[in-house]
Structure formats: C-alpha cells, structure tokens
Amino acid sequence: MATYSIRPKEGAPISMPVKWEEIYRDKLSSQEYNIFNSVEGIETIYLFFLEVL
Question: With left for phi above 0 and alpha for psi between -120 and 50, is residue 41 left, alpha or beta?
Fold first, then answer.
C-alpha cells in the first residue's frame, strides 16, 4: 500500500508515516488517521521535507 493512500474501509483510514513515539503509544489504531483528521499531519511532514530539500 502506498503512503497517503485511502483504504477502502469504514471511516476512510489513510496509510501514512508515523513517528516512533506514536508507534509505542498504547492503543495505536489505523482508524486514528483518516481523511477527516490527517491534513494537519500531512502538512507537518511536508514542512519537514521542505526544510531538507
């Protein structure tokens, strides 16, 4: 599955990179990242890559 692709499941979860802190957090769920709440995370990652380009 490609990064930032929408999965064909209820709630429209998105495949996206996460930080290590998020992986080790209790109750990590793929449902946390969806088309309704992921724009802020994508903007943050975009700004990170913009700095290194």
Answer: alpha
Domain boundary assignment for the chain: 1-53
CA–CA gap between residue 23 and residue 21 (Å, rounded): 6
Ranking 1-5, 8-12, 24-28, 43-47 by mean pLDDT, the lowest is: 43-47
Distances (CA, A) of 22 to 16, 29, 32, 34, 51: 12, 10, 11, 15, 22
Q: What are phi and psi for residue 30, nearest 5 degrees?
A: -65, -20
CA gap 44, 41 in Å, rounded: 5
More confident residue, 7 or 53: 7
What single-letter amino acid sits at 23?
Answer: I
